[in-house]
Write a structure and sequence with these properties.
The complex is a heterodimer of chains A (163) and B (226).
Chain A (H helix, E strand, L loop, with lengths): L1 H27 L4 H5 L3 H15 L8 E3 L3 E3 L2 E9 L6 E10 L3 E5 L4 E3 L4 E9 L10 E10 L2 E8 L6
Chain B lengths: L16 H12 L7 E5 L4 E5 L4 E5 L2 E3 L2 H26 L6 H9 L1 H22 L1 H11 L5 E4 L7 E9 L3 E11 L1 H24 L21
Antiparallel strand pairs in B: 1-2, 1-7, 2-3, 3-4, 5-6, 6-7
Helix pairs in contact in B: 1-2, 1-6, 2-3, 3-6, 4-6
Classes of the chains: A alpha+beta (163), B alpha+beta (226).
Chain lengths: 163, 226
């Protein structure tokens, strides 16, 4: 008799510990399965805002600006000012760009560390032949950068260079 | 091979030493930390999982589910109760309630390990074979061009690289690392010890069999009466 009572008591304890969380979770969320399973809307919104905040507004026309290139023989060096649109530190692993569709330049440093939202200066170098525009622009750039161990390779298409 | 230690030498009543150690380990397991850790990149996404806790973060921001949290709390309470029952049943194996309390807790670590491995393998299967199709469709639908999502997740433990290709404009690559922790292997040791304790407990509480010996014959010499 007492053995049977203990047997059923333990079974009920097991059932209570399984069904209890289900009933409590659904009960406290007005029996809304989605609300019980997923993080609540405020938390989701907070995550969304924070992730959007991390990535900022994304690249804009102010992300890259270039100074007057220097030419030594057929070598061209383009000083670059990169203003990070991200609210997290990133590492620029590689940039190759086309200057006014006339020259192909590449980053010479192995990597450039960019603090959150900061502006860094570095040089892209390559070979150039022909007439140099007075206001050169990066017409397109392939950029590889890393944040939180995630590597992003992106193509950024810019404006045409001046004449 | 003889299982267990005989206590009479120590002047103690017989007890299930394997069960006692298993009980203590069952009691401790919920408080020792995660059994499995998953990482994407270096902090882009982190998941630390055990049958009692789940810590998930995206770029350092914690993500929680109340239902999962309550289930894990219930698992923690179950293990604490199971550990106490195991210790009591192992200390007093001859009591009438011993067998029932022992059976309530002894296989919990074993089934927890099996459940965790099934969840991890099923998760990896879904991420590798179902999610890429859904995400590709979602990215393409959101105007991200012809998006191709390729997720390579290791099953349970290992390292792989996953890629999201958004048309010809962007590629996102993330290394994914999964690993089982030392606590998982302690849980495996607890499960093995639990199985040994269960076998030993059966022997310990088994009622002694009555051995029927053939009746001894006594030769009685009877003197003839006059």
């Amino acid at each position: 008799m007492r053995d049977g009572a203990l047997k059923w008591g333990l079974r009920l304890l097991g059932i209570a510990l399984t069904l209890g969380p289900l009933l409590i979770a659904f009960g406290t969320h007005n029996w809304d399965i989605k609300a019980a399973v997923l993080p609540n809307e405020n938390e989701m919104k907070q995550i969304e805002n924070s992730v959007t905040g991390i990535f900022g507004g994304g690249p804009s026309e102010n992300t890259f600006s270039i100074d007057s290139p220097t030419i030594t023989g057929n070598r061209i060096e383009v000083p670059i000012h990169f203003t990070s649109p991200f609210n997290i530190p990133i590492k620029i692993k590689d940039i190759s760009a086309s200057v006014s569709n006339l020259a192909q330049v590449q980053m010479e440093e192995e990597e450039v560390n960019v603090p959150a939202g900061a502006t860094v200066n570095f040089v892209l170098a390559g070979t150039y032949t022909g007439m140099l525009p007075t206001n050169p622009q990066l017409s397109s750039a392939d950029m590889t950068f890393e944040f939180y161990g995630v590597t992003v390779s992106a193509r950024i298409v810019g404006g045409q260079g001046g004449s | 091979m003889k299982l267990g230690l005989k206590s009479p030498d120590l002047g103690l009543p017989p007890m299930n030493w394997f069960g006692l150690i298993t009980g203590i380990l069952i009691l401790l397991l919920p408080f020792l930390g995660p059994w499995w850790v998953g990482r994407a990149g270096t902090g882009a996404m982190e998941i630390a999982l055990s049958p009692f806790d789940m810590n998930m973060s995206l770029f350092g921001l914690p993500i929680q589910s109340s239902l999962v949290g309550l289930f894990l709390l219930a698992a923690k309470i179950t293990f604490v109760i199971a550990g106490i029952f195991m210790i009591l049943a192992s200390l007093l194996p001859k009591r009438w309630w011993s067998k029932r309390l022992f059976r309530f807790g002894v296989m919990k670590p074993f089934w927890s390990i099996i459940s965790l491995l099934i969840v991890l393998a099923a998760g990896a299967l879904i991420f590798n074979h179902v999610l890429p199709g859904l995400l590709s469709g979602a990215f393409s639908g959101a105007g991200a061009g012809n998006a191709v999502v390729q997720i390579n997740m290791p099953y349970i433990s290992g390292t792989a690289v996953s890629t999201i290709q958004i048309g010809s404009t962007a590629t996102i690559t993330a290394p994914i690392t999964f690993s089982l922790t030392g606590i998982f292997w302690l849980a495996v040791a607890t499960a093995i010890l639990g199985i040994i304790a269960r076998i030993y407990h059966r022997r310990l509480v088994r009622p002694e069999k009555l051995m029927l010996k053939p009746t001894e014959r006594k030769i009685i010499t009877v003197k003839p009466t006059k």
